[in-house]
Here is the input.
Amino acid sequence: MNNDEPQEIRRQRIDEWENLDENGYRYHKSQWDTPKQSTIAFENFVSKNISKSTQIIDMGAGAGASTAYLASKHRSVHFTCFDYSNELTALGRKIAQDKRITNLTFNQGDWFNLNQTNQFDGCISLQTLSWLPDYEAALLEIFKKINPTWIGLTSLFYEGTLLAASKLRSMKNKKAFTTSILYQLSADFAKEKDTFW
Here is the structure.
């Protein structure tokens, strides 16, 4: 996190997730009936990892529509929707019960203050990380407290040029290898390259 940013930018913004109005409820309910294309693409991308798992947690799952889609495609895997909002987890829990989805549960909690667990072999998060004020602290909580076998994340809402860094660290023969990649992405580049996606 950049400590030079004003406090109001660093602080977690939760007002969009609490006290939902009629439009907010309609938005979250409609996703249960018509999955977003990004959810369908994500399922295709992580399908092999999901099939090798027994329990997966979705961090920042909201009312759980995306997670419910994954649960419908992988009935032998149990999914837990985890979100900060009591209102959204209650809504998702009710919809899942009404639809009789048995491999989906909901837990309310704070991503920045997780309980230690070894329950989950997979951890996903769709379109959430970019909303958090400190994505590094959020990721560290996952690594330290959940420690899953695999992680699948999507989160990119920006139409300008991005400078991105990826660090991949793997353990092979009890030796750690770290690879760093620095690259620049722009909306123009994505439009020019039909194989970019």
Remarks:
- The first helix runs from residue 7 to 10.
- The helical segments are 7-10, 22-33, 37-51, 65-73, 86-98, 135-146, 187-192.
- The chain has seven helices and seven strands.
